[in-house]
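Notebook, bench 3.
Goal today: get a predicted structure for ABC transporter ATP-binding protein from Glycomyces endophyticus so we can plan the truncation constructs. The sequence was checked against the plasmid map this morning, with no discrepancies at the termini. Length recorded as 297 residues. Pasting the sequence as submitted so the record is complete.
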Amino acid sequence: MDTPVITTTALTKRYGSHPALTDATLDLPAGRIVGLVGPNGAGKSTLLALAAGLIRPTSGTIEVLGNRPAADAAQLARVGFVAQDTPVYTQLTVADHLTLGEKLNPRWDRRTAADRIRQIGLDPAKKAGRLSGGQKAQLALTLAAAKRPDLLIFDEPVAALDPLARRAFLQSLMEFVADLDVAVVLSSHLIADVERVCDHLVILAESRVQVAGDIDDLTADHYRVVGPRGTLDTLPAGVEPIAADHTPRQSTLIVHNTTGRPLDLPGAETIGLEDMVLTYLHRAEGLGTPILQETRS
């Protein structure tokens, strides 16, 4: 079994009395595109900054590729990080960025960088400050991938992009993953984008991990169960209620089935990724049961 790319145990980060991340215990698998989903302030950026070695935990532990984050130059070379605003140097040209990347990164892949710049149609002589948001994101992605890292970390890379630029960026990301055999951790609040490119999911809310696992497994293990009021008060062992909505005549539950077997309850049906994510977010924020698609009256 491959070593997880990121392993955390009770990982906690606080700023004064404010909890940014609380007791996060995770094993993010190698060879995957891992999506971190949650609202603003959920802890996504904090977790990624801890993984990149930009900040230190208040308590708990984190290992990235089997080592302490940013432990040394060799460790830094194995991780590519693109921050939320896809930072580039506005006064440097595209070509200047590639030259700087080659000087700073011992594993720099000149051909990958040059080929990618040509494929996406960036003018090497153009200053980065004159690029569109989508072009800046593509340049940042190229710089991160040309490091030839073992892990790429992206913090909300498409949040500010229009739909076409967002689609182009995600397509480029999937191409890099296929070509370079690199693991990716990607944070986003756009569930559709995560569903399109990711195969492993972590849901964060209120600074805590709500659930984590392979997307196919998670969607197969979460059910909507509808029955007459009172018939769902007791659930089988291994079936955890996540949310409930009751009318005088009917109960609707969202449950997580951890038994490893299909849920054998009348009125049970699996739910989609969006419904599952929204259910956990509403529960964490104390908002009760969301209005779920396909809920029967």
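The first helix runs from residue 44 to 52. Confidence is low (pLDDT under 50) at residues 291-297.
Flagging this for group meeting.
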